[in-house]
Amino acid sequence: MTESKKPEMPPFMKSISETLPSSFDVLHVPLTLDDAQVHLLYMKTVVDGLSLQQSIIKPFYELDDEQKFGAYIQSLPNRLDPPPPDELLIMLTSGFVLVYADSTYSILEIRKLGNTLQGPTIAETTIHGPQLSLSEDLETNVSIVRQHYHQPNLYVETQQLNDKSNMSIALLYDEKEVNVDVLRRVKEKLDNLDEPLIQSAGELAVRLTSRRFTLFPTSILTERPDRIVYNLTGGKIILLVDNSPYAIVLPVIFFDFMVSMEENYHTYLISLYNTLLGWFGLLNCLLLPSMYVAFTAYSPEVLRTELTLTMAGSRIGVPYPSFMEVIIMLFFVELLTEASVRLPRSINAAATTVGGLILGTAATEASLASNVLIMIIAIVAISTFVIPMNELGFAVRIGRLVLILLTTLFGLVGLISGSLLLIIHLTNQDSFGEPYLRIGWRSKRSEKMVNSE
Amino acid sequence: MSTKWLKIIFLSILLITLTSSISGCAYKGVDKRSFVVGIGVDPPKDPGNKFRVTLKIAKPIASLKSSTENEYAYLVHESESIAQTIRFLETQDDKVMDFSQTKILALSEDVLHGDLFSLMDYFVRRGDLQLVLYVLVAKPNAEDVLRVQPPLESAGENALYNYFDRTGIESPFVTTTFLFEFRRDYDTKGQSSVLPIVEANEEGDKFTVNHSIVLKNSVEPVTLTPTDTKLYNSLMREAAGYGYTIDNEGYKFTLSMDRVKMKLKIHVKDGEKPRAIVSIKAVGVISESNKLLKLKELDYYSKLSGEQFSEQVKDLFIHLQEKNVDPFGFGLKYRATRLNTKDTLDNWKEIYPELEFDVKVDMQLKSVGAME
Q1: Which residues does chain A have within 8 Å of residue B130's beta carbon, measured at their own beta carbons?
Q2: Do B219 and B231 reside in the same domain of the chain?
């Protein structure tokens, strides 16, 4: 089809088409049959071609009449009246088709859906819970949530981010449960976002917090539909972002991070035990390295004599003071963790083996680190993974460096005041107006709205 | 913005310099400390001095598996005071002496005469010495006791700790006295402190801990025999165990006690002799006998044992009364249950030598220890 043979474009469509860049995927398709003439303008790469063929092109040739076709277009459920040109352009880039038929303009959503495939859960795996995570498509995700939560109170508000990505986001909440103040605050934040480009849920979550230098996250990123529903019933707001398999849960309190979804799928004692394990892991991860520094360098009297002597013995020949030793070994472990995240799954195991086992033994053999420390570092590394939410794990990994520094300077007193500092920091924080360290004194039963009448 | 960053940079530089200069003050790596595990005090060999102090310093254990036995270093010095001696001994060690793990204070029998406050003062005053260290009396002298290396002592272990901290042996013959307890009882009017006696054999590879010694500043120390030590421990420390021999009406039992409890009451009335009423409740079993025993007669056996037991206790009380020491705290009981006037203590001093002991034993044997 060459330009010369192409029937003349209607003026409005022409002006739109001129503002669009001359990209290979911008298509203007005139359909002509006898007198009837219809113009389509769309971007090939974001429009579902098969669906376009089925719902527009084929009926046109079957109906064989411009008026009838116009009426048909008017009746389509995915039809909208064309908005002002600026918005129209954005809509075209996100999978809408501009149709000129029977002297009226219509805009039809024939979007090529993104990745609607639900992958297995990666970041928060459970044994007994649902095994599939969210997909990467907004609509699919909303439908996943709806299918998990059959309530008419579930409100879904969609809007577009006004950055370069123009990503659609959906705001989900249970209208009965939601805290209106928080909802208002979140909406304000969303409207006032001033970021050139936001690409994923994680990024949006960061931009939504007002403080820049904050250690602890003020929202949870989750990939689990069951966690989303669990939080919806608790009155939280869920933000779904197109093209991102993660949902943002807000507002959160500190204790939300210590909930593993697995806990809901076990008997009381088992889940209590798991919760305690999680807390124990958190404390281990946060305090153990600094405790090592405190005990080896300031107050060996806290430990039993045998342990003190063993620790002293295992430090024989270690050239650096214990805080250097701890920082070096912690740094190694951080590298290992990062490496195992970056590497493909297949090589992953090799990296951890080489790093963990061989480096550890070699470090003690070369007396760069004491045996006791290697053990502590291993415990700390494992404990990091016991913390149910990844984001908290990151915060703790940084927080413990502060504790080590304070302990190095002031000993056990430093450790205690450092922990106090952390608690003060947490107390001072809030998540969209919710106090961060609020203790939710609600039973699981009332949280899940069982017997709510 | 720039000033803020400047502040941050300045602070981090400050922190880095502070951390690197940390080797000075309290920061002292565990490998740069030498841990004193025992202190011994002996009479001096040179009469010009007052004390001879032995420090037992533990060598760090590099690997528990490869080291077969404990290695200790001993530092000995004499001078006029304990503080001086320790200060001097510190110059013989390249590392900082750390007394925080010290749990043994061995005192030679010969330093126990006279006033012990000047001896105790340093140990009580020094901050890093813990008041829960075990005080013991050493025979033949403190240095020998500290130098004993029992063949059963494995690396990373201290045999003397095992005697006293009840993680190892729990014997009614072993008295455990902490430093704070020793000082408190020594100082309290109407109470005497009791210390265990640890004897080292001549080869230096064995301890025997079954005697104890009663100390009070104004009187000569009184050594208790193993039987008396055991009685004292059962009654005062509620220690239990084997070995209470009863010989009454042709029966010879050895009892094994589970629980022994003692209650004191002191009756002083005009015209009567002052009496101490001691009621003891003892629960145990017969673990050895010279005759065949019947379960039906258990009450009779209990009565027999009770009579004998009360006699043994009474003998011990009278023995201690004669020596004018009071480890059971009759005086303290008297002082605590009377209106305190300036005469209370003097009254007690008059009463104690005349005190009569009325020992009632409620012996409850639970079994004859064998099937019929």
Answers
A1: 301
A2: no
